[in-house]
Amino acid sequence: MKNYYVYILASKKSGVLYIGVTDNLVRRVYEHKNNLIKGFTSKYFVHHLIYFEETCDVNSAIAREKQIKRWKRDWKIELIEKNNQEWQDLYPEIIN
Asked: Entry's Gene3D superfamilies (predicted)?
């Protein structure tokens, strides 16, 4: 069964946020970290994986991404800090 991920990247604690969806979290975050895809994350140095959710349904992943993108910034920060109060980069945890 395939997994899908909704993820949030940040430039730094309380910095610029980026919300995305992918079916390969390790690969996608690697692409962001290494500026392999030109755009928002490379322009604003948004390279730290600070939050992610996993689901086996692509439609619910896309719906969740859209939902979080519509949220006020305070709500997004609350979601992040519920599980990652210090905004630690979670990438090392997912590559193991």
From this structure: GIY-YIG endonuclease
